[in-house]
Amino acid sequence: MNNHLPKIKTIRVMLQEMGEQQQAVFRMAFKMHNTTNYVIVSPDSDEKPDLILVDTDTPAGVEALERVEENLSGSTCGYVFFRVADSNDSLFG
């Protein structure tokens, strides 16, 4: 057995309220990361996610985030929410 080989951790990720293009960006980013194996799980999956990413750019995304927060109370699963900035945001002006 070679102890010099790195151990690769697997993190199960659930993507909420994202379009196909956003999901493709995350899949590509996950593939580029060499030290961690990311597996995307669906809400119907029996596997529990380690991380949930929620796009809160729409009212449906905000509702999804609220559901995630309710369902995860007392859980060790982490979640991240994000909103896509546009030209009307103060960041750009």
Your description of this structure?
It is a single chain. The chain is an alpha/beta fold and 93 residues long. It has two helices and four strands; from the N terminus they run βαββαβ. It has helices at residues 20-32, 59-71; strands spanning 9-16, 36-40, 51-55, 78-82. Strands 2-1-3-4 form a four-stranded parallel β-sheet, sandwiched between helices. The chain is globular. The N and C termini lie far apart (58 Å). The relative contact order is 0.20. The model has no long low-confidence stretch (mean pLDDT 78).
Low-confidence stretches at least 5 residues in length (pLDDT < 50)? none
Major sheet summary line: 4 strands, parallel
Please work out how many helical segments DSSP would assign: 2
Structural class: alpha/beta
Strand content: 15-25%
- Form type: globular
Taking the alpha carbons of the first and last residues, their distance comes to 58 Å
Instruction: Assign a percent range to the helix content.
Output: 25-40%
Order of helices and strands: EHEEHE
List the strand order in the largest sheet: 2-1-3-4
Number of strands: 4
What gyration radius follows from the Cα positions, in whole Å?
Answer: 16 Å
Mean pLDDT: 78
